[in-house]
Specification:
This protein is of the alpha/beta class and 384 residues long. Helices cover 38% and strands 13% of the residues. Strands 1-9-8-5-4-2-3 form a seven-stranded mixed beta sheet, with helices on both faces. Strands 12-13-14 form a three-stranded antiparallel beta sheet. The protein has a two-stranded antiparallel ribbon with strand order 6-7.
């Protein structure tokens, strides 16, 4: 009998989650009701931010974050090549250009040294970025203190892409607190730390940015009498004050997220237990296990190893044949055909490319059992 397949990730849905969603489905309002503001307040409180703006995906959150910071044609935005394409695409949506900063081979996050070098060159060329988007890859916090110091020096705003990192901590504060970033974006995709089915949120401590993002997520429309040009119009009156989008989150999704937030600390604890079991199991094997800064706390969305001397394709195929659905995160963004057509080439960011050639994401989700973790370790050990 073939063993049950172990996915690389899976949502963790409880009876309480189902009840929370069912309650909304039986209520008068499925969208634009009370659940989205309640979810925003809950997440903002959890991460220590002043505002949370819930939207229908983390990609939408990054798009409106760029727009709120004034990104547009003629601007350039920098991010890392080791990320999902959305971290770069958000700038293209605004008509801006994108460039990349290579990673630190140990942390796999944006390298402050590479960033400093790129800033110095960009200043000489008169082409400084409007926004820098560091990514907390796998949930391990980027070196935000060093990145922020450089961005302040050269006048760039920061959007921290924390899609992998809810529940983690950096410099003694929850990721998303906004200590070093103008805006932090979170993801609630089913494989992330908590889920709303699909969804995202933009966190900020700036009232002006929150106001802009609230408008942008809902067609640019407001009913706020204090800002409308005809404040004394009838109760039906609304105004479109700019070009926005339909990026709203529904109350159905928000209810699920609000329920999931009750278990956030437990989710993070279990992910760290799984990571520790993997670490011990791979200690004597020819693999590089994930780096963790002992002064910080990872969200541990992913557990990514690097194969030192093995052929990844062979290992990947054999693990899938054995019922273990490993994955690879990520193909360098600048290798994608769309970005090659914009002038990027293989070899442009050697550290990111060297990492990618060895990377393998192992199963990581809260309902992964110790027995399943041991099966992954034993199967990979036999293959190596």
């Amino acid at each position: 009998m073939t063993a049950e397949q172990i996915p690389y990730a899976r949502q963790d849905i409880s009876d309480d989650d189902v009840a929370a969603v069912s309650a909304v489905l039986r209520s008068a309002m499925l969208s634009q009701g009370p659940m989205v503001p309640a979810f925003e307040r809950c997440v903002a409180t959890a991460v220590g931010a002043r505002h949370g703006v819930a939207v229908n995906s983390a990609t939408s959150a990054m798009h409106i974050a760029c727009l709120a910071l004034g990104v547009g044609p003629g601007d350039v935005v920098w991010t890392t090549p080791t990320t999902f394409v959305a971290s770069a695409n958000c700038a293209i949506y605004c008509g801006a250009d994108v460039d990349f900063v290579d990673i630190d081979p140990r942390t796999l996050n944006m390298s402050p040294a590479a960033l400093a070098e790129k800033f110095a060159t960009a200043e000489k060329n008169g082409r400084l970025p409007k926004v820098v988007i560091p990514v907390d890859f796998t949930g391990e916090p980027a070196d935000m203190k060093a990145i922020a110091a450089l961005c302040r020096r050269y006048g760039a705003a920061i959007i921290e892409d924390a899609a992998h990192a809810l529940g983690g901590q950096y410099d003694g504060a929850p990721i998303g607190s906004g200590r070093y970033a103008d805006i932090t974006t979170l993801s609630f995709h089913p494989v992330k730390i908590i889920t709303t089915g699909e969804g995202g949120m933009a966190m900020t401590n700036r009232d002006d940015l929150a106001e802009k993002m609230h408008l942008l997520r809902s067609h640019g429309i407001t009913r706020d009498a204090t800002v409308m040009s005809q404040a004394d119009a009838g109760g039906w009156y609304y105004e479109q004050q700019g070009l926005g989008f339909n990026y709203r989150m529904t109350d159905i999704h928000a209810a699920l997220g609000l329920s999931q937030m009750d278990r956030l600390s437990g989710f993070i604890h279990r992910r760290h237990e799984i990571a520790a079991r993997y670490d011990a199991g791979f200690a004597a094997m020819p693999v590089i296990t994930p780096y963790r800064d002992p002064a910080q706390i990872s969200g541990f969305h992913l557990y990514v190893i690097q194969l030192e001397d093995a052929d990844r394709r062979t290992i990947y195929d054999a693990l899938h044949a054995a019922g273990i659905a490993v994955n690879v995160h990520y193909i360098p963004v600048h290798w994608q055909p769309y970005y090659r057509a914009r002038g990027f080439r293989r070899g442009d960011f050697p550290a990111a490319e060297a990492y990618y050639k060895k990377a393998l994401s192992l199963p990581m989700f809260t309902r992964l059992t110790d027995a399943q973790v041991d099966r992954v370790i034993e199967t990979l050990g036999r293959l190596l």
